[in-house]
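User: For my dataset I need records formatted as: sequence, then structure tokens, nothing else. Please produce one.
Assistant:
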Amino acid sequence: MKAVVMAGGAGSRLRPLTVGRPKPMLPLANQGVLGHILTLLSQHGITDVIVTLQYMASVIEDYYGDGSSYGVSIRYVIEDTPLGTAGSVANARQYLDEPFIVISGDALTNFNLSEIIAYHEEKKAEATIVLYHVAEPLDYGVIVTDQEGRVTRFLEKPSWGEVASDTVNTGIYVLDPSVLDRIPANTPYDWASQVFPVMLQSGAPLYGYAAPGYWCDIGNFAEYRRATADLLRGLVYPTSVLGHHIGGDIWVGQDVDIAPDAQLFGPIYLGNEVQIKGGVVIRGPSVVRDYTIVDSRARIDRSIIWRNCYIGEDAELRGAIVSRQCSL
């Protein structure tokens, strides 16, 4: 089965972090969001991947290349202008002649994709929407299903009085190629507001699968912090994927230098060649990415520091996100 990763969004709610890089490349501990998605696809034997791009397309192409370092083969399909979630996938229709899975390029998840695909095939669905139970569904598209899993109703960002379910649309779908016939060529089109409601009205076999596991839509700063913290706490994958464990919920990359009197309280990830000087105190969940120097007596609490930064002597950071190549 092929996969289509929707990675064209500009990530405006995450500015200024996304001014210089596309949202799918926001770092989550030891790799970008898209890297985590490609790894998940590879783990489930899905190695033929189409990545749809629009915003800063060349940056993603240059970084991920042919995908071989992630165990996949990537083909890029670029939109000249934004085509929406469905329009971007339809733009790749020439490569999609069999059932395929669509996954949003700005979410962190550990869903069992093999089980989701098996469900789609068992139901003989034309489209299967992967759902997730959330405590507060007001900011999402809520989807109601019957006992057989068939979709019966859509509620886009409802009020509490309208909430009829806590299962929301994750932006992950398994689709038959016939679905693409419902999308006009070169036209902005959306799955949640246009394609799926029409399928529901026409009686098409449209199903929802409530997936167990972990999912986080990284659409704002709070969710970016949450995804990072959950990754460090082992709520997504075993923390062994982060690097070398040196004790106390602390994971490091290669050639990390930590002063003997530095105090680290995990969970913490330190990237390759990070230097932690004397008297430094770091409290997790915190990330210090590759080649960053944290100078003497600096204090870092619940912060994310990107690569190639310098945190000066006696500096204090609390709940901060520091972009790359910053000096504080």
